[in-house]
């Protein structure tokens, strides 16, 4: 299940994906209001997304945030991994944070591990295959 922090990050990034590419940066106050994210949490989330090179920021009175690259080049998987870490539900199938399970007799024979690999692969396929541009286009099509 996605944490509230991930949902906030996704909402903020989806809002920024709808901003004009060549327009001015969007203030944190506006992002918080439009994406319905508490400013206190948004500040930390935007710092993480900036640290992952998903956002650029500009300081000053006319400063704010914008996507670091085009919306079609940022996937929902990029955002969730930045906020949550690995997508795998168990550590023995993680591609970025692998650890053997303490209670497993044999990884090669573990039915749970094999099922969780399929879950990880399908989850990654869908999230990595859905860009911010895809998500905002689907949102507009549904309206």
From TrEMBL:
Annotated PANTHER family: HTH-TYPE TRANSCRIPTIONAL REGULATOR ISCR, WINGED HELIX-TURN-HELIX TRANSCRIPTIONAL REGULATOR, RRF2 FAMILY
Superkingdom of origin: Bacteria
Record GO cellular component, one term: cytosol
Official protein name in the record: Rrf2 family protein
Keywords: DNA-binding
GO molecular function: DNA binding; DNA-binding transcription factor activity
Database matches in Pfam families: Rrf2
């Amino acid at each position: 299940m996605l944490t509230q922090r991930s949902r906030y990050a996704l909402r903020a990034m989806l809002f920024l994906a709808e901003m004009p590419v060549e327009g001015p940066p969007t203030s944190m106050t506006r992002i918080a209001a439009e994406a319905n994210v508490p400013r206190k949490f948004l500040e930390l989330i935007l710092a993480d997304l900036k640290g992952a090179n998903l956002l650029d920021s500009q300081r000053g009175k006319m400063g704010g945030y914008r996507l670091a690259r085009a919306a079609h080049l940022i996937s929902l998987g990029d955002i969730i991994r930045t906020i949550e870490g690995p997508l795998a539900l168990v550590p023995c199938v993680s591609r970025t944070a692998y650890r053997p399970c303490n209670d497993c007799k044999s990884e090669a024979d573990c039915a749970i591990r094999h099922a969780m690999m399929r879950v990880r692969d399908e989850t990654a396929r869908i999230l990595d295959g859905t860009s911010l541009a895809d998500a905002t286009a689907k949102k507009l099509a549904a309206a």
